[in-house]
Amino acid sequence: MRVKAIGIAPYAGLKRLMEELAKEDPEMDLVVEQGDLEEGVDIARRAEKEGYELVISRGGTASLIREAVSIPVAEIPVSGYDMLRVLTLLKDYRGEVAIVGFPNITRGAAVICDLLNLSVHTVTVRKPSEVEEQLESRRRQGIQVVVGDVVTVKAAEKLGMHGLLITSGREAVLDAFEEGKRVYRLFSRLRREASLYRNILDRDRRGIVVFGGKERILFRNPAAARFPLSAPAVERAIQELVEESLRRGQSESRLLPLEESGVQIAAVPLDDRSGETRVAIHLEKCRFAVSPEKWGCVEIRHTRSEPKETAFHRFVGKSGALREAIQSAQKYSEWDVPVWISGEEGTGKEMFALAIHQASPRGDQPFIAVDSGCLKPEEWNELIADAVAGPFRRGTLYLKNAEKIPAKVQKRLGALIADEGDGPRWLISTVVDLGKEVRRGAFDRKLYQLLGRAHLPLPPLRERKEDMDDLIPLFIAEGNSKYGKSIVGMESELIEELKRLTWPGNIEELKRAVEAMVLKSDGHYIGRRETADILERLKQEASRPVGRELDWTGTLEEMEIQIIQRVLVEEGMNQTRAAQRLGINRSTLWRKLQNVHRETPPGNKR
Ligand SMILES: Nc1ncnc2c1ncn2[C@@H]1O[C@H](COP(=O)(O)OP(=O)(O)OP(=O)(O)O)[C@@H](O)[C@H]1O
């Protein structure tokens, strides 16, 4: 490897020496020009433009060049030999001598003068402009001879003094050649590496932008131009993500709905030992159009605002059923498997799905909740494309009302899940009995079997009424902050009445009812009097069919089971009263109830 180098010699003799030595070095392709200080800098600048890869120069000239160009600069050192040579010359000189120069010269000179027992004044300067001033005052002291670099010698001549130049010897020049080649090799290796990374970044289809202190953009790849970086929503999201990622010292991401499609934005703090805070922003377009008009069916959340250990802390209620569900969900969150959550409307399915996501290793990625009933066929295609190869693949996709997924999509989902390749974590929820849907051919059997491996059945509120003792105060508190009230509780008689209702809309319905009561109440306690109309409405609601509408597609036996279930619920699970209403005796009811339990999906005790 030959190095195309430019030598910049501050004095003529050095030019000659460098040229002579370069001829003997097969790796050195050296052209030498003469130039001191600024003159040398101009030569170096020009040489860099002309494609030279290395500069070799000396002393102050080399230092100035280093500041001005971005190719490596090797310096011919002023060696001990050089100094020794010039001082030996002065050994027998009787008059006084001064050495005037930059620290690189005076430091070594002082030691040598000491060794040779020479009495020489050493004067250190920091700027070329100081040289003349120093020489002037030495001259006034009667000193006639000064030793130094080219600046010193030139100034001495101007003032009528004798200037002795410290010339560089062969060894110093050869040292500089070796140093230059070493630095050049290192430099070109780094440059090759940088160009490799640059190439990778330039071809990345993600937009990549690197910010360094005070929102300065240090780098952006060509793909970044496709993203509206200065759109207010994007700017805000980037700023928040940068702050968040630096605060936590980890990557943070967010899916942002933009006009024509969604964009996944991630902030990655860079630990590049530069001593400067740098954050890379990755931008990736979704194919799935997360447009505002679809916000009813698609919701994207970013959750890692709390430590993942607290994901399940928001659940209120001490019933065994709830605690059991939380335990299973915690277990499922650790495995990256699809989970099927079933339960009547408002039982907390989405809350569980979100908690599973948050507690999982994907918690810092987006959680995308999709209402399966809302999507058109082409939107399913986009959604799956983003799930397989787009930004959704790292997050969690929660498909609610999964019984409404079109048959074709069920098959594709089944194949995707069975494949177990890279892709999102799938969570799905249903309000209907999927087992029965499978039996009547309305749901894909393979998908059902894959989902059944991790099933989380959520019991309706009427089967865990003790949870209401904790839920009611929680919803009062939420109502207080929503409506600016300061209610401290609810009359116990009213609580008892609420517990007697069947709550077909479950926790969601309870929440809305309590909030409505908070809004109506003026005192510190919610009483029955001022909330009588709400209670009445709830009673009417409670008499509507529980769970879902009667399903007329099943067999006679299946419909009988549905009727028994509904009457039982409406009679507050009282079997005697239910049997009376149905016109059968209790033992017949009991026998039929055994069928009910057999028909219910595994673990879903209704
Ligand atoms: N154990 C609980 N503690 C506190 N709040 C709860 C609990 N369970 C559910 N909730 C609240 O009840 C409401 C309904 O829950 P969620 O939306 O998760 O139900 P869902 O089963 O997904 O409903 P749907 O079937 O209608 O989509 C939410 O506001 C949720 O925060």
From TrEMBL:
Which keywords label this protein? ATP-binding, Nucleotide-binding, Transcription, Transcription regulation
Show where the Sigma-54 factor interaction domain sits. 315-519
* Protein's GO biological process: regulation of DNA-templated transcription
Tell me, what is one Gene Ontology molecular-function annotation carried by this entry?
A: phosphorelay response regulator activity
Domain of life where this protein originates = Bacteria
Give the InterPro entries listed for this entry.
Answer: AAA_lid_NorR (IPR058031), Homeodomain-like_sf (IPR009057), HTH_Fis (IPR002197), P-loop_NTPase (IPR027417), Sig_transdc_resp-reg_PrpR_N (IPR010524), Sigma_54_int (IPR002078)
Which Pfam families does the UniProt entry name for this protein?
A: AAA_lid_14, HTH_8, PrpR_N, Sigma54_activ_2
Q: Can you tell me where the transmembrane regions are? A: none
Protein name as annotated: Transcriptional regulator with PAS, ATPase and Fis domain
Organism listed in the record: Planifilum fimeticola
